[in-house]
Structure formats: structure tokens, C-alpha cells
Amino acid sequence: MNNRVWKGSPHRVRERWFRRLFKIGVLLKGVDGVLETFGGVLFLFMGRDTLRSLVMALTQSELLEDPDDWVANSLRHAFSHLSASGKLFGSLYLLVHGALKMFLVIALLRGKLWSFPTALAVLVAFMGYQVYRVSVHFSWILVSLTGLDSMIVALIWHEWHYLKGRLQSPA
Description:
By secondary structure, the chain is mainly alpha-helical. About 85% of the residues lie in helices and about 0% in strands. It has helices spanning about 5, 10-45, 50-65, 70-80, 85-110, 115-135, 140-170.
């Protein structure tokens, strides 16, 4: 078969797009992991009064535009009642979640086969928690993030099977 025809076949073009989307999705998760880890460190070392003041300052302009903004009001409410144990839990959650994401992203991008089922299990577990949170208090943002996570799960699954197939097929 002509090699030029094979390289441009619809199957190969589709595979290239899936692999690109996989890399983009995983890189986005990596950026999210870095931001979560950074946020967890800040959260851990900033005092509660400083955090409250920061949230008040960050939400003030939004509330001037829309006094009923749900996100801004929810943030203000949460931080005005922030306990020491709540602050510690939030810090540790962000640190562990962010560090785990960064670790798995590096392993996925390096093509470590063990990382694919591990990443799938971790993502599905967090998605389960997100679905629970949506059932307790509905949020379009959380629904959207869960939908995005489900697409990334599908891309990780696809990439995993693609790599396993490449390793099993003769060269």
C-alpha cells in the first residue's frame, strides 16, 4: 500500500486529533494542579483575616456590578465563617489534589502505562465526589467541570489503549 495514502488516512488523522486533545486536556489538568498546589500553600500560610480581606477585595467590583452574584456572595459567606480546621482542611485538600494531579500529568505525558489506570481511578473518584456535591447543592460550574473531566477520562482511556496497542503490535 502507498505510504502517503496511509499517512493521510481518516483513521490516522482521527488518531492524531485524539492524541492532540489528550495532550491539551492533560496539560490543562497539570496547570490546574499547579494552581491548586500554589493556592493550597497560600491558603495554609495566610492568616484567616488576611484571607477574608483578600476575598472581600476580589469580590467587591463584581458585587458592585451585580449585588446578587452567587459566586461572589458564596465566597464572602464561606470566608466570613472560616474556622481554623476548615482552613487547614481546605489547604490540605488543595495541596494533595494539586500535587497528585501534577504527579499523574507528568507520568501520563511520559507514557507510563501504570499511570493511565491510576489517573482514571483518581479522576473517576473525584468526579463521584463532584456529582455528590452537585446533588447536595446544584452548580452549573461544577456540572461543567464534571463534564470536562468526563471528556478527559475518555481521552485518557483512548490514549492508554492506543499506547498498549502500539506496544503489542510488531514494529
